[in-house]
Design brief:
This protein is mostly beta strands and 493 residues long. It has 2 domains: 2-130, Immunoglobulin-like (Sandwich), CATH 2.60.40; 138-489, Neuraminidase (6 Propeller), CATH 2.120.10.30. It contains 4 helices and 39 strands. Strand 20 (237-249) and strand 21 (257-270) form a beta hairpin. The longest helix has 10 residues, at 92-101. The N and C termini lie far apart (63 Å).
């Protein structure tokens, strides 16, 4: 797509951009208005976007042999473009100029189509509100096929949210085809993160801003490996759940697989001491505990809990509640558990709690049963106001699975995985969060090729926003993988 050149559209160009006594757009009797919004993909109409987002390229799905696109900022600045195939790709420089002049206001995008007979049709303008706040400049996610049989072509990707720059943080084919999963950054920081690797190069790889270290966290005191990490804000501790899971396969359409816990408990890693410890739970009832999450001040550990399953259990009866415990760092002790959200009472199951950086709000996923919400079409995001404990379903949800989510560093944006485009592959969606009553319409991560999501058969998993690009890459992981894993020791509770 190129800027419109003089020729067949010269008269239209003059009318859209009045010069002297030139006519205005409303004076064009031959440009009939459809009276409706144009159908575009992705659907970016009415969305709230960051003031630093990459060009919001899209495809026009209305009939036509040629299209004119007029992009306008509130001060009257315009950019006029032409497309012969319906794919709209904004020039980066022009997009950034329009974006900058629309901060705190609205971008207007008008589309005029031409059919083979030369008849023109004008559509109602698409509007995008440009929020005054920016988005963290990088997004990290796992890219893989949405299956469960193998670990083929699994990558952890770093993608700029301000442009289309993209590179691999890890490629599992460079690690003997091992599984790579559960990446986690400490407070959106690129200089403090970890990644799990399973297989011959297995271990938890820690990056501290200088060194990448391969560590084996499982000790003889643990029944299973450490998964689902959560950094304590100070960076000294990492909470994990230690899970033994099983997979079940269904014949029913839309429910291909179910992943359930047979056992899970909370364990913790002391980064400085290279030691593992647990909660020293004195409760006489046996529970399964998973999905830890720290409050931003490090005072509370939130997590999901259900009764320990027994042999012959019905997986549809497993419902996880949301709880929290106060943590005392000096003694590494936890106070008794407090119930935050009773999902069982609502015949539902909770997973993936995450808390806003200001500590005021908690978002979690709610679904019918179990723990692996990404395979549940009914999975939705819910919000808890931690000041009033009011819980409500968020407006960002769809008819398909809306699952794993995380916050931006300033708490103004949420990114989450959604299968709303095709019901099979998860894509990263962003939503502006001004307050519980002011949440923007979600938009999918923009791509240079607006048709990418239609043909890409891979799923975007565990999206995490970060404030910069880590100073490591796949080669760094290859080098670290060649060294023997450092074994953690059990240091008790």
């Amino acid at each position: 797509m190129n800027k419109v050149k003089f020729g067949a559209y010269f008269l239209l160009f003059l009318c859209l951009y009045p010069v002297g006594g030139g006519c205005r757009q409303k004076d064009l009797p031959d440009v009939a208005s459809s009276g409706k919004m144009p159908v575009i993909e992705p659907d970016y109409s009415g969305v709230t976007i960051p003031c630093n987002i990459a060009p919001m390229n899209f495809s026009i799905l209305e009939p036509g042999s040629r299209y004119i696109i007029i992009v306008s900022a509130p001060d009257g600045t315009k950019e006029m473009l032409e497309s012969s195939d319906g794919n709209v790709k904004f020039p980066v420089k022009a997009w950034k100029e329009i974006l900058g002049k629309s901060k705190g206001d609205t971008i207007s995008i008008e589309i005029i189509s031409e059919n083979k007979e030369g008849k023109l049709q004008r559509y109602l303008p698409i509007r995008m509100y440009v929020a005054p706040s920016s988005l963290d400049p990088w997004l990290c996610y796992r890219l893989l096929y949405p299956g469960y049989e193998s670990w083929v072509e699994m990558q952890i990707i770093l993608r700029s949210t301000e442009s289309f720059e993209e590179e691999s943080l890890i490629e599992n084919q460079l690690l003997d085809g091992n599984c790579v999963n559960c990446h986690m950054f400490n407070q959106n920081r690129p200089d403090r993160f970890l990644v799990h690797v399973r297989g011959s190069k297995g271990g938890t790889y820690f990056y501290d801003g200088k060194n990448l270290t391969r560590t084996s966290l499982r000790t003889e005191n643990m029944k299973a490996n450490a998964v689902y990490p959560a950094w304590h804000p100070l960076g000294k501790y990492v909470a994990f759940s230690s899970n033994k899971t099983v997979q079940s396969f269904h014949m029913k359409t839309g429910k291909n697989i179910e992943v359930t816990d047979m056992y899970s408990s909370l364990v913790f890693y002391d980064v400085e001491k290279n030691g593992m410890f647990d909660c020293n739970d004195k409760d006489t009832v046996t529970y399964m505990e998973t999905f830890p999450c720290w409050s931003p001040d490090g005072e509370f550990l939130y997590y999901c809990r259900t009764l320990q399953v027994k042999e012959g259990y019905d997986f549809k009866s497993v419902k996880y509640d949301l709880l929290r415990r106060r943590f005392i760092p000096l003694t590494r002790e936890f106070e008794p558990a407090e119930l935050v959200f009773n999902a069982l009472e609502k015949n539902k199951s909770a997973s993936f709690p995450t808390i806003s950086p200001d500590g005021k709000y908690l978002v979690f996923t709610l679904h019918d049963y179990g723990t692996f919400s990404i395979w549940h079409r009914e999975a939705d995001l819910y919000l808890i106001d931690l000041q009033t404990m009011k819980t409500e379903k968020m407006t960002v949800n769809s008819e398909e699975a809306d699952s794993y989510h995380s916050w931006s560093s300033d708490g103004k944006w949420i990114v989450f995985s959604s299968k709303r485009l095709d019901g099979l592959t998860a894509r990263p969606y962003f939503a502006y969060f001004e307050s519980p009553d002011a949440v923007g319409k979600p938009f999918v991560l923009p791509q240079k090729d607006p048709a990418l999501y239609r043909r890409l058969a891979k799923t975007f998993n565990r999206p995490e926003l970060i404030t910069g690009k880590p100073d490591v890459n796949s080669r760094s992981f290859m080098k670290a993988a060649k060294k023997e894993a450092i074994k953690a020791k059990w240091i008790g509770n």
